[in-house]
Amino acid sequence: DVTGVQTLCSSDLSGVFYQEFDSRGVSSFRQLTQINSAVWSHLLFKDQKTNKEKLLVGTISNGIFEIDDKFRVKSISNTQEFKNKEIVHIAYSMYQSERNPNQVYIGMSGSFAAMEWDGYIWKDLGRVKRDVLKKEYRFIGEVSSNDLWVVTYGEGITRIQFDKDTLVTEYGVDQGLPSNTDNSIFITEGNI
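The structure corresponding to this sequence follows.
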């Protein structure tokens, strides 16, 4: 939203594109050249302090990027906070927590992580239950303030409950799912 008018963005295997109009009102798409790899996820993040929105884009080879309302692109994964850390953000899914709106969960290939916006920079919160969460996480939903449900790629559904200790429960065919593949979840009024 650069001029008070909503802007259409599109992404594909080669990057992110935004719609612009020429002086005659004819539209075309322009690529944000800083993002030139396959985009797998996106999240419209709302800053709780400023009420401004920024688009977070997860790629499968260059990490996570932030795009502001003026189409300025910043690589989150290449900032000092994230550089040379063990978390490589191959972001298949991202979710802004309702419990803590400054926190974003990231579903990756082989791990599940979190980062937090402090109002100025993104902070790496590291992997969640690194010894247990080792699948490819494709969709994240939050049922209540301490209860995430995450769809995996071909390995069922995972429930992550945050309390004094983080509890992880796996659901697959043995727990009643018709298949471990092609699952999705829908969350309505706090219920899965």
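The chain is about 0% helix and 45% strand.
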